[in-house]
Amino acid sequence: MNKEKSLNVTPTTSLSPSGVNACRDWYASAAGQATLARVQSIVSSMSTDIFGYYALEMGVLAGRCSFLQESRIASQFSLGSVPGEAVSMVGTPEHLPFALHNLDLVIATHALDCATHPHQVLREIERVLVPEGHCILIAFNPVSFRGLGQLRHLFKPAARHCEFYSTLRVREWLSVLGFEVCETVSAGFCPVLSGNYLFKHARWLDRLGSKFRLMTGNVYIIHAQKKVSNMTPLLPSRKVKPVLRPGMVVNPGAGRLVRKESNNVTQDS
């Protein structure tokens, strides 16, 4: 159940084209390709034991790579934002073309980073998921080398192609919508700069971050499950005994008679 008020967004909202291109350019680098392979492995392990009928991939990487190769869900769809891509359908993450409670798994790649209204994206995911359904969110980490790159636009927010949100913030949004976070993993600890020299000499950062499960990777993956509370009325813990027994006769004037007798005694004395 949604506990936040509606943002009243319009159906014209969509992913930022400049943000989509910036994300895809980042993944085209050597460090981005290594991070993508690691992310695919993590998402595959998260989704292997998820059963159901329908699964959806959406976001920046929809149609370019598949995260559902190891999934046991037979019917799989991909939602793209640009016409002409190899996707099942074209739409916006803020207004998913699915009915209420129909999908068992939703994988969103950087849909929060590039969306104008990230809250609405999460609301739509909550709406289309069945009770106990799963969602896997992939996003850039502001506490990383990738996040440090955003500092150059510190005094020019309009120049940012994407907006990065911390894991604590996203987990709080999910909690408000009734999700339970199952797992949070970070990947891609190497800096991404022009050329591959720095990447080749910084691979030890990937090994270190993966070994100690650090949360400073360029990308984080959040696996959450939609929870629906069942309200069950609570019965009283003990049986309350009635004050009056059956057959008991109550004399409403007994108190007045006692007071009258007490007055007579006072006068005689």
Automatic annotation (TrEMBL):
GO molecular function annotations of the record: methyltransferase activity
Assigned keywords, A-Z: Methyltransferase, Transferase
Record organism: Thiothrix litoralis
Boundaries of every Methyltransferase type domain copy: 89-137
GO biological process: methylation
Annotated SUPFAM superfamilies: S-adenosyl-L-methionine-dependent methyltransferases
Pfam families registered for this protein in UniProt: Methyltransf_11
UniProt feature coiled coil, ranges: none
Name listed for the protein in its UniProt record: Methyltransferase domain-containing protein
